[in-house]
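Q: For a teaching session next week I want to show students how multiple molecules come together into a single three-dimensional assembly. I've collected the sequence lines for a complex. Could you give me the predicted structure tokens for the whole thing so I can convert them for display?
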Amino acid sequence: MKKAVVSLIIIGAFVIYSIIHARPDLVAIVANTPGDTPSSSSSATTNSSTETTVTSSSTQTPGSLYRDGSYTGSVDDAQWGFVQVKAIITNGKITDVKFLQYPNDRERSIYINSIADPQLTSEAIQAQSANVDIVTGATDSSLAFMQSLTDALSQAQA
Amino acid sequence: MGMPITVEVVDPSVSEADIEQVFAYFCTVDDTFSTYKEHSEISKINRGELDEEEYSDEMKTILALSEQTRQETHGYFDIQHNGIRDPSGIVKGWAILQAAHLLKDAGFSNFYIDAGGDIQVAGHKDGEPWRIGIRNPFERKEIVKVLSVTDKGVATSGTAIRGQHIYNPHDPDTPLQDIVSLTIIGPNVYEADRFATAAFAMGKRGIYFIEQLPGFEGYMIDATARATFTTGFERYVLRHDNTR
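A: Of course. Below is the structure for the complete assembly, covering every listed component.
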């Protein structure tokens, strides 16, 4: 009985392994430096994508389509910025995919750092006369919450 | 919207019905745009219960204005958060401005509308421009700046929790952007509100964004109680001796 169970497990694992490695279209990344030492660069690369065929080499795990290492994909234009991913291959399998750029954040970051930095005046804030018609300021709700919570907690003290 | 709304009309011909009209208008805005109301139009949209053709005119307007603002602020204003659309950062200023138009159409020219600290002022009070105080974010009973304003909009983005740190969750290594309050004076409260929302998200860089925006002035308070302001801001400041 035990031998049958162990056999089933091994067969099951083999089936799963085969399924995973029979589906190369599952991941659409592009390796740009095959066979080199793993690249950890996160700078933008050119827009042209380079396809490589995986040939057998000493770093390739038998039966897998990918060689170990980390690979940075091309920079692709999403609607509001760029997307770039880095895939990490360990023992022939994709073990991690990192986003190096998010569309929104890259564009925002470029923009915010491009604004000129004129010299602006600073001062310590100072209490003024409260003789005003109207008051503008941060909303009260968060402060009210904190005050209410403090009050409730003080009541809860033994 | 769950916030206090104050309306004051100085023109002597004003009646209670005129003021009521403003509050009634804010109620309809809340019914449409409040994400806290299960049956509001925005909640239905967020649950996928409405097709675009079914959107009300106001909703279509707000969504279009939100998209325009998103582009103008390079994504720093964005109503999309975690898959949900929450336009409250632009609805408030827009609604106050619409309400101000209601009062102007009714023939009034000296009034203010304040919804949650975002304000549209028109004309004068006792012959002087309206006096607007900027609240101390660390001590809510205190005023730290007095402004003298007419026919403009004033909006403040911020938090009243002392020293709350704002950071970009996608890039936690960026230095903490420690600003707690950003007050914007703009041509009207819709403009002031949308840019106050966007500029606050930019942290300490926000005041430079406002500086290079023609027609807007800003006063930013950081977590160390230090304020930085734009080069044209002081023309709106009222000093102790009432000179400008």
